[in-house]
What we know:
mainly beta, 16-stranded antiparallel β-sheet
Amino acid sequence: MRRILLFFLLIISVHLSAQINMVSKKIFLDSLNHECAPENYAYTRVITNYSQKSIRYVVTDFYKNGRKKMTGSTLDRDILKKDGEFIYYYKNGAKESVINYSEDHKTGKEISWYENQNKKCEKQNVWDPKTKKLQTLVLNCWNENKNQTVLDGNGEFEETDTFIRQKGILKNGLKQGVWEGSDSLRKIAFVDNYDRGILISGVSIDEDNVKFSYSSLSEKQSGKKIRN
């Protein structure tokens, strides 16, 4: 009788495990968030309701230490198309930022914190579906010593976003004048000129001291002159 009971418990356990595997999907990501082989992964991603037809799918990224890196919802189970609130975390589990998305575009208020949970920055994202352009207003920022460096959209601002570091002056929440920075992924340093948040000119220098001038953000990102 005991053997029969153990046999049925084993069957139920295998059945439940199969159901869980069918419902969720786990993929491995490298440091650039590209899908990769398990032996090369930096993060893992779990889509918890993958096998079900749904308007949104819950997606959660994890660090190697098992803690959450990011959690939110995607409109596509196979391609990350962010929609709704996304929460990002540091490796130690502390909250890094809260950002809202609408059909994969930032929208509304965005808040970020330092690892010690002191507030870092408050931004306002405005997405225009007609022009397909995003405008981000930097409202208030503080340095690690809790000193406010940007007040009501005005002040000196320094930002680090994955591979890019840059600093300059904000006026009414937008970049104004000369901004200096570097891109560790592309291995370049750059100096840009902005007018009310619009890039009007810039020069980048790569590790071989080769200079490239550009007059738009699309030229800067592509590294190529764009003909009208």
